[in-house]
Amino acid sequence: MDLVTLTTVHDIGLASIVCGVLEQAGIEAVTSGTTDDVFPVGEVIPIQILVREDDLDRARDVLSSYENEPEEGEEE
């Protein structure tokens, strides 16, 4: 299984959200660049979101749809 980078974020919480959105759409996603240790205060660590190469286009579509979805309470 060849993994490719879908996107890079700098927040572990955002990385979890992105992976969750992808997994809800049936796309396996993993992170790279994180550690199980406590992050030093003030350090910015790039976190790559990786998906299978075959899922890359679909994963981009899923994230694009999610990012363009209106917030609850917003009018379209």
Kindly list the characteristics that best describe this protein:
3-stranded antiparallel sheet, 2 helices
Fold and architecture overview:
This protein is an alpha+beta fold. It has one domain (3-67): 2-Layer Sandwich (Alpha-Beta Plaits), CATH 3.30.70.790. It has helices spanning 12-24, 56-68; strands spanning 3-9, 29-32, 47-52. A three-stranded antiparallel sheet has the order 1-3-2, covered by helices on one side. The model has no long low-confidence stretch (mean pLDDT 83).
Task: Provide a concise account of the structure shown.
It contains 2 helices and 3 strands.
Q: Overall pLDDT, averaged?
A: 83
Task: Give the overall silhouette.
Answer: globular
CATH-derived architecture: 2-Layer Sandwich
CATH domain topology: Alpha-Beta Plaits
Q: Percent of residues in beta strands?
A: 15-25%
**How many domain units?**
1
Secondary-structure blueprint:
Blueprint: E1 3-9, H1 12-24, E2 29-32, E3 47-52, H2 56-68
Antiparallel strand pairs: 1-3, 2-3
